[in-house]
Fold MarR family transcriptional regulator.
Amino acid sequence: MMSDSNVLLLDNQLCFALYSTSLAMTQIYKPLLEPLGLTYPQYLVLLILWEQDGIGLKDIGERLGQKSGALTPVIKRMEQEGLVDRTRLPHDERSLSVRLTARGQQLKAEAMKINQCLIETCGVPGGELMAMKDKIIALRDILLANQKK
């Protein structure tokens, strides 16, 4: 049990542990993604599209936990760089579908190398790394469920 004087120390905060770990992780990705001309947010969008191509911008936003408006500049830039195509859905002109181009699909092979580099950089056995990920996802799900109450 923590004493009252230690409760508010920065290093004792779960939120800071998650935040600083997230920053460290994105900094590891940066030099790995640079040769591909990708930013971390673009990489996340590609991960979603490699899993399910041709989905709506709103769906991408939901998967990333972001509003679609925040993703619009990222997707527009990806379109300008020839990674994706955006099209309006015929049944709903307000909705956009995002589809990979051939170039966007080709980057998937390079991403496999990035994933392996990241695993090696973490220096944690694969099973243990997956267990950590599962615990973080469980915590996220609890937090999101409690927000809705």
Remarks:
- The chain has seven helices and three strands.
- The longest helix spans residues 126-147.
